[in-house]
Amino acid sequence: MDLLLEYHSQLLAGTWMTVKLALVSLAIALVFGLLGAWAKLSKNRLAQRLAGIYTTLVRGVPDLVLILLVFFGGQVMINELGYATGLWGYVDISKFAAGAATIGVIFGAYFTETFRGAIMAIPPGQIEAGVSCGMRKSLIFRHIIWPQMVRYALPGFTNNWLVQLKTTALVSVIGLQDLVYNAFTAGRSTGQLFTFMAAAFVIYLMLTGLSDLAFRALDRRYSRGVVRA
Amino acid sequence: MSVEQLLAYIPLDVALIAANFDRFLWGVWMTLNLTFLALLIGGIIAIPMAIARASNHRLWNPVIWGYTYVFRGTPLLVQTYLIYYGLGQFTVVRDSWLWDPILSSAWWCALIAFTLNTAAYTTELLRGAIIDTPKGEVEAAIATGHSYRSRMRRIILPSAFRRAIPAYSNEVIFMLHGSVVASTITLQDILGVGRWLNGRYYLAYEGFITAALLYFIIVFAITRVFRWIERRYLRHLTRRSEPTPSVELAPSPIR
Prior knowledge:
The complex is a heterodimer.
Chain A: H1 2-6, H2 8-41, H3 45-60, H4 63-85, H5 95-120, H6 124-132, H7 137-167, H8 179-190, H9 193-222
Chain B: H1 3-9, H2 14-19, H3 21-54, H4 60-72, H5 76-86, H6 91-95, H7 99-103, H8 106-131, H9 135-143, H10 148-178, H11 190-201, H12 206-233
Helix pairs in contact in B: 3-4, 3-8, 3-11, 4-8, 5-8, 8-10, 9-10, 10-12, 11-12
């Protein structure tokens, strides 16, 4: 316990890094998710096909494989491109950027399905009603689709976020100083790995537990007008 | 055009991958045996836990809920580290008879962590399937004189297992994805071999891309098998006008 207090700043810094990484990758995932859902539901064959390839590919390969591929392969690729075109010199991609981008793109595929399902759950009659009133596409999206989509997407959203938060732990493998990495190094240098890993375990549990509570409150708020069986 | 010319278009050292392919096959074996043993053992212990949860057992329900909550709320990586790196901190553990054959071995620690993890998720999804049993089916079973045990065995569980198939196919794919954690505790699973290859020959792509392809093939095969299982066991749920509901490659992480 004394050791945990002694190393508390390292643990806190790691926790903050984990939270930051999760939030940044969430923002990226939301953008990819919305784009993906839009592409999958559009009438454009090419867009549908591309979105299909994206979700299938990303979900067929484990997260860590992609993280390592982007971090090590991406580094080489960017530098070879820079060398070949002469546009930029040697670039070091940051662990944070590589991790956030990869996890964001991966979870974008899951959010694509969440958003697609949520949009499809909206009765088509409502959208037709919007069209017949002369509403433009953007207006239909803002006034009819978006407010309901949020509610339908919330359970899937909660799930994705919790999985994503836990997935960020993998970024410690490429050496980003997140909660796992910091707990591990502190545990290794003091010879008390169990104590420190247990501390990380409890912190993750608090993070997921808090998110769970927050989303439950949101869910109550957004489904206020709904009668549940 | 010859094969050599074709290969020249691929910016990867295909010959090197081919030369080390037997290692990758061992990696596939390692990944598959860890994943499926964990799924098997975890699945077996999940059944009684799910029943206890679904029937609101006064003692076991809160205990098992606590277990599943904790294991579903933390990363598999941390669980694995806690067991593999953590337990060695205690002299009691290091001196016990369990240490030498089991707790000091990375493979056993990975198996224990994966099993505990998948058991937690499987318990919850089975519980959901059990409490979703249509009330009429249970009432009919009571009316025909089934006891609690035979009701469970002959009516509730068979239909709950069927209802759990789509969600379980997700769990199987997630366990496979999660098994890459084994490579972080020195095991030579598919990713472990990929990392070894890249480290050994100082490469950036070859090992990871080969690993990615192998995982993709396995995920594809798993979805195919589940599609077949669903067609067979969920036929009664198919709408006549629509084609069979199929599992896509892991629709969304139901975790």
